[in-house]
Amino acid sequence: MEERAGFRPLPLSGRAPRRRYWVLPTALLCLYGFFANLRPSEPFLTRYLLGPDKNLTETQVFNEIYPVWTYSYLVLLFPVFLATDYLRYKPVILLQGLSLIVTWFMLLYAQGLLAIQFLEFFYGLVTATEIAYYSYIYSIVDLNLYQKVTSYCRSATLVGYTVGSICGQVLVSVANWSLFSLNVISLTSVSVAFATAWFLPMPQKSLFFHHILRSQVSREMKVLDCKNGAVIQDDPALKSVPGWEDIESKVPLNVEEHSTETQEQKVDISKVLKELWRDFLQCYSSRPMLCWSVWWAFSTCGYFQVINYTQGLWEMVLPSQNFKIYNGGVEAVSTLLGAVAVFAVGYIKVSWATWGEVALALFSLLIAAAVYVMDTVRNIWVCYASYVIFRIVYMMLITIATFQIATNLSMERYALVFGINTFIALTLQTLLTLIVVDSSGLGLNIFTQFMIYASYFAAISLMFLVSGIYSVLKNYRRQEEMPSRSTASPP
Questions:
Q1: Where are the alpha helices (DSSP H) in 51-129?
Q2: Mean pLDDT, the chain, whole residue set
Q3: Lowest-confidence segment of 173-187, 253-267, 302-316 by average pLDDT
Q4: How many C-alpha atoms does 443 have within 13 Å on its Cβ side?
Q5: pLDDT category, 4, cuts 50, 70, 90?
Q6: DSSP letters along 165-218, please?
Q7: CA pair distance 157, 439, nearest whole angstrom
Q8: Residue 68 has pLDDT above 90, yes or no
Q9: Which residues have a Cβ under 8 Å from the Cβ of 271 and sit 6 or more positions away?
């Protein structure tokens, strides 16, 4: 703590306490992330709601219950974003743990449509407060440890999610456990996570309201060296996420260490909002930043929709009463293969500044094809395979987009840009849900919904293909003009 207040410990005694200081909160946070994501019942949620335990209809689940998560997530995102920074992370982590307990307790004992809709609201609070988990550790450790602790925390969530999915599949398929029993295990696991969170030390600083002033340092610190994807191959665990789609969007991956004198200063909310607005205008005035952010927001919207309703599609393709479902195994396989694909991105030598938009267009078309096949080929194994392809491609692309956006951004602007991108994605998802899914809108059946989602990704692909071809031609003409100008110039 003395070092954070501006005092430097003696070299002989400084290393050990400092090392011990970051190890304990990192270990506690990793334990929290592991148990919070160890939920073996989650891959079987739709089957549980439609089964005898809750006895809900397909229309109630798909058109009246699941949309509540989207609406609550959108409404809670911005106030939770500010509250997380103002309260300095730990209280919001505790709120997330408590919300997880309430969610799974209601999943066990709540009955009726209205009660399950309240359950979805609390789950929306769980996802909105994830930002506290992924940003807490940066207020505790020194800048040179950011990449290391990020890899640990993200690996913990990945392992927890994968172990939970595999355990759920084994207990259902081999041990013939009931889905109620799986939810008991999930409730126990999130309760352990909540208990662990109480032992986290309280941070003394945050990004905006309790930030650190750094003298003689440029505001724009370089976060990542993304040239040719070098960062990706340094630490593969950095890119692996369960529902990784929501995690990559919330925290910085690395920043350079700057040896400067620091001074803590509290900032009032009006100054924070004005500063955020200025940063917003500056960040999105860059065309590359705008391009990658647009793809990020639009594709994440579609990804959320597909993920939310995939279990419903599988249930319609082959009802679980007539077949042993393998949802848990599919989730585990898609997560692990997605992590492998993300790792492989580090070895791809591509000029993303030139070919990035074209690559986004082609891979978005592949995503659209996977969703289309999932919808039209009414075979459960084809659906499983298409879903795995869908998640692998998305996880790979979102990694590239994350690194491209994060290049040359300060930690504050990184959090701002990805917070705004998430908000835009949720706004689009809310509109899509309200029109296509909600019973107050069109209330379409699950197969028609997935046809719309496939068309949605195809439209994204077309948009970026046109923009990408224009960018490539523009760069090509610029390269042709450069030699002609050099030869025309007088000696």
A1: 58-59, 66-86, 90-109, 113-128
A2: 78
A3: 253-267
A4: 10
A5: very low
A6: HHHHHHHHHTS---HHHHHHHHHHHHHHHHHHHTTSPPPS--SSTEEEEETT--
A7: 34
A8: yes
A9: none
Indicate the helix (H) or strand (E) that contains 266. Answer: strand 262-266
Instruction: List own/partner pairs for 15-22 with CB under 8 A and 24 or more apart.
Output: 18/142, 21/140, 22/140, 22/141, 22/142, 22/145, 22/149
Report whether pLDDT(266) > 80: no
DSSP 9: P
**The pair of three-digit structure tokens given for residue 246, joined into one six-digit string:** 């929501």
Structural tokens at position 236: 């593969």
The pLDDT score that the predictor gives to residue 210 is 67
* Residue, of 365 and 323, whose pLDDT is higher: 365
210/86 Cα distance (integer angstroms): 7
Distance, in Å, from the CA atom of 394 to the CA atom of 383, rounded to the nearest integer, reads: 16
Instruction: Tell me the HSE value of 215 on the side-chain side, using a 13 A CA sphere.
Output: 6
Region of 267 please: left (phi>0), alpha (psi -120 to 50) or beta. Answer: beta
Distances (CA, A) of 207 to 68, 83, 250: 31, 12, 13
Classify 31 as helix, strand or coil. Answer: helix
- CB-based contacts of 225-229 (< 8 A; 24+ apart in sequence): 225/407, 226/403, 226/404, 226/406, 226/407, 228/349, 228/350, 229/345, 229/346, 229/347, 229/348, 229/349, 229/350, 229/400, 229/403
Euclidean distance between CA atoms 150 and 236, whole angstroms: 11
For the chain, what's the residue count? 491
Query: Does the pTM of the predicted model rise above 0.70?
Result: yes
